[in-house]
Amino acid sequence: MIGLLRRLAATMTLPVLLVLAWWWTSDASTNFYLPPLRQILAAFAEVWIGDRFATDVLPSLARLAAGYLIAAVAGIGAGVSQTRIEDADTDRPMITFRDADGHPRRIDCDYVAGCDGLHGVSRTTIPESVRTVAQRAYPFSRLGILADVPPSTDELIYAWHPDGFALHSMRSAAVSRLYPQVAPDDDVTNWLDGRVWEALSTRFALDGWALKSGPTLEKSVTPMRSFVSAPMRWGRLFLAGDASHIVPPTGAKGLNLAIADVNKLGTALVRAIQDGRDDLIDGYSDDALRRVWQATHFSWWMTSMPHAPPAADPDAGFLRQMQTTQLAYVTSSPTAAAGLAENYTGAVLPY
User: What is the mean pLDDT of residues 147-160?
Assistant: First the structure.
């Protein structure tokens, strides 16, 4: 027993000494990125023991658990594989797949709504001879940051800077969402907290206002692209949301477009099934694509205006001048500002 206690003491001595040294050497620190140990422990207690455990941590854990549960039910519980949509160009389309035991299954349908995203089977069910794709990959990405710091303002901020775009938004009264522009091949490991806040402070620099900084909770790099696949109907298969179109997040149109698709498609299907009238489903693709292209144009415009072109672009100087000229016009002309506001809120979109 004595030998065990001696080994335990020998094992614990160095960690205890290191913690005490950390406490002593950091106690007078005023550096935000190297705070005193007592401050770190106080923040830990506040988040994991205090009121914020119930308001921030538990809801986040609940959302995480819900996501895992949905994935488990859909991917493991159902065990569906080899999903295909067949005979979509007839009046009796069907969905075929293999269940968890490997047995072939079939669902006979009146209509199929393809809401399975960019990588689902719905879009590629439409023959290539019928399907057209228009897309643009932007020469930059965004670093998405979730920070444990109250928003610096209750306003959404879009910032143009020669170093790159930056966006300030809010997740809650205690948590901020921020997005600096990064290179398309950048990696999240290149962005430690110190570099993140330095870049954001530079891009948001404004006399009389300062960006609040704090520990980051989450980081991810998001590529930017515009993508439209047409038509959105083939026979009795109808596409909705990301199965047909993707927009960059700058214009805040992705989820709005998906909801508009589902709303219009749902109304059209109800009329076809209950009333036997096909006028709305016949017009669904053309009507939806008019809305999609208008939102795609606005998202492209909103993305191109504040994001700095790559330094290697031979037209970078020209493009930067075009951006600042456009920004000056939008912020000084009531007519231009109204046009931006109408598109941003969706007031001019045929929802």
Answer: 91
Domains of the chain: 29-78 (no CATH), 135-225 (3.30.9.10)
Q: What pairing do the DSSP bridges indicate for beta strands 245-246 and 176-182?
A: unpaired
Burial class (CB in 10 A: 0-12, 13-18, 19+), 233: buried
CA separation for the pair 60, 54 (Å, rounded): 10
**CA 37, CA 29: separation in Å to the nearest integer?**
9
pLDDT of residue 78: 63
Classified as helix, coil or strand, 35 is: coil
Identify which of 290, 278, 307 has the alpha carbon closest to the alpha carbon of residue 245.
290
Give the residue-averaged pLDDT of 22-34: 78
**Could you tell me the end-to-end alpha-carbon distance of the chain, in angstroms, rounded to an integer?**
76
Quote the CA–CA distance of 188 and 179 in Å, as a whole number.
12
Quick: pLDDT tens for 318-329.
999 999 999 999
